[in-house]
Amino acid sequence: MKMLPRCTAAPRVGGLLATIGLLVSAAPAQAVATCSASGVMAGESFSLTHCAAAVLPGENSVTLWFNEGPITPDEQATFAMSAYALNIANGRERTMVLVAFCPGGGSTTASAGAVKSLDMGLSHAKSAMAGRQWLLEAPQDFKVEQIAGEAVPGGKLSGRITGQRASEGSYAWDLKFDVTLPTQEAASGVTCGK
To answer: Would you state the pLDDT for residue 194?
Structure first.
């Protein structure tokens, strides 16, 4: 009877581990977004530390979703495709801010002076009446303190936008973001002049 060497299983295990390593390294990594949105909505304070992004390359526009609680991977994927987020989750109102804008005007390269308007939606869990939807104009409603990056799928975008709207109650916001835009193209967004 012929004996097999004891190490015959090692190449299979090694090959399996190498294959798993290749598959893991080939899988797209989930980009880590750093963001915060703070301020007041109709006198109610808010502090949001979770966000997701969507990009519409044909218009070079970006939509950012700032949320009080974690955004699930499924919600992120849906938002990347639609640039739309529900203000109700699990039967409860969300505290959130949606802001859609053209980081570079009509260009892909972000520039503070090129951001002329913001489409902003606000929702507060403690006060349904605090919610608003506005088309804001610079410089009277907001200021782009800083912005850098590219409004392209997979591009990086960072910045800070502050503003206030006292004409309809007490509203103020400070939006900070450092995100990698999804590679998925959104089905909607704002129109940017070119």
So the answer is: 62
pLDDT of 122-154, one tens digit each? 999 998 889 999 999 999 999 999 999 999 999
- Here the tokens at position 162 are 């502050």
DSSP string, 17-83: HHHHHHHHHHSPPPPPPEEEEEEEETTEEEEE-EEEEEEETTTTEEEEEEESSPPPHHHHHHHHHHS
Which helix (H) or strand (E) segment holds residue 14: the answer is helix 9-26
> What count of other Cβ atoms lies within 10 Å of the Cβ of residue 9?
10
The amino acid occupying position 53 is: A
Q: Is the pLDDT of residue 159 over 70?
A: yes
The pair of structure tokens assigned to 46 is 């808010």
Beta-bridge partners for 178? 34, 158
Question: Do strands 88-89 and 92-93 pair parallel, antiparallel, or not at all (unpaired)?
Answer: antiparallel
Interval 75-117: pLDDT, tens:
999 999 999 998 888 888 899 999 999 999 989 999 999 999 9
The number of helices, as runs of H, and strands, as runs of E, in the chain is 2, 12
CA distance 89 to 43: 23
Q: How many CB atoms lie within 10 A of CB 149?
A: 21
